[in-house]
Design goal:
96 residues; alpha+beta; Alpha-Beta Plaits; 27% strand
């Protein structure tokens, strides 16, 4: 599993120009089963995505399709982790 930490490196007006394309990218990844949760940071300096992809090279390929990445609007930090404890509702995340 990966936490994808997105940090904008340009003004929000430019980010907003690609927001609909970014949402389409997210929708596609959810349909493919690659993403579990996503949302914006507060204050709005970027966003966070939780992905169940296990391969760093595969998640990098997916990120390269994001309009924010393709248009050099944001930096991406990847943190891989193995959930070992969760609340009842998120038990499906635990890896044996």
């Amino acid at each position: 599993m990966f936490i994808i930490n997105i940090t904008y490196k340009t003004e929000l007006e430019k980010v907003d120009q690609f927001l609909n394309e970014h949402i389409e990218f997210l929708n596609e990844q959810y349909e493919l089963g690659h993403f579990l949760a996503s949302g914006r940071k507060i204050p709005r300096t970027g966003g966070i995505i939780l992905s169940n992809i296990e391969s760093k090279s595969e998640i990098e390929k997916i990120i390269n399709k994001d309009p924010f990445k393709k248009n050099e609007l944001a930096d991406y930090e990847l943190t891989q982790f193995v959930p070992s404890k969760t609340c009842e509702k998120l038990k499906f995340l635990i890896e044996e």
